[in-house]
């Protein structure tokens, strides 16, 4: 089916709604291939953009939900759990500048226990709250020295 906006859907239909395996293609070059239920993305799917960015993972009620992997052409990656379209649960991100984080996410923010590695070689492992170091943690410096203590919204 071709829509007025130029997008094309190829796949199954049940009672006038996308169902089962299908593929949507937009004039912009964006493509979604995966499963639908009652017209919404549900189950395993893959999004790809014209610039080469890719997301592959699980969907529920039209949103990223469950385990997935995002790979961007700028070198950024995320692998982990999502809930209602936001990072939520265990996950790992890696940035092209050398920053990385592995740990717990809540509603798209680092929250709970996690480990961050910085481009200068410094490592922080400890508690996070609302995307900031908060609570007990430990920093290991590139020279091997360490500091353990408490952080407050840092």
Structural write-up:
The chain has 154 residues and is mainly β. It has 2 domains: 1-73, Single Sheet (Histone H3 K4-specific methyltransferase SET7/9 N-terminal domain); 83-154, Histone H3 K4-specific methyltransferase SET7/9 N-terminal domain (Single Sheet), CATH 2.20.110. The protein has no helices and 13 strands. The protein has a 13-stranded antiparallel sheet with strand order 1-2-3-4-5-6-7-8-9-10-11-12-13, with no helix packed on it. Strand 8 and strand 9 form a beta hairpin. The radius of gyration is 20 Å and the shape is elongated. The model has no long low-confidence stretch (mean pLDDT 97).
Give the topology, please.
Blueprint: E1 8-14, E2 17-25, E3 31-37, E4 40-48, E5 54-60, E6 63-71, E7 77-83, E8 86-94, E9 100-106, E10 109-117, E11 123-129, E12 132-140, E13 146-151
Antiparallel strand pairs: 1-2, 2-3, 3-4, 4-5, 5-6, 6-7, 7-8, 8-9, 9-10, 10-11, 11-12, 12-13
């Amino acid at each position: 089916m071709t829509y007025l906006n130029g997008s094309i859907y190829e796949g199954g239909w049940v009672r006038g709604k996308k169902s089962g395996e299908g593929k949507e293609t937009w004039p912009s070059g964006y493509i979604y291939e995966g499963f639908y239920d009652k017209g919404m993305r549900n189950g395993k799917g893959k999004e790809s953009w014209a610039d080469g960015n890719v997301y592959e993972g699980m969907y529920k009620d039209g949103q990223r939900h469950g385990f997935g992997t995002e790979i961007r052409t700028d070198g950024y990656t995320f692998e982990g759990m999502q809930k209602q379209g936001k990072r939520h649960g265990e996950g790992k991100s890696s940035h092209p500048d050398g920053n990385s984080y592995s740990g717990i996410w809540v509603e798209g923010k680092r929250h709970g226990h996690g480990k961050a590695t910085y481009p200068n070689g410094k490592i922080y492992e400890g508690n996070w709250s609302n995307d900031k170091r908060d609570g007990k943690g430990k920093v290991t410096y590139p020279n091997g020295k360490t500091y353990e203590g408490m952080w407050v919204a840092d």
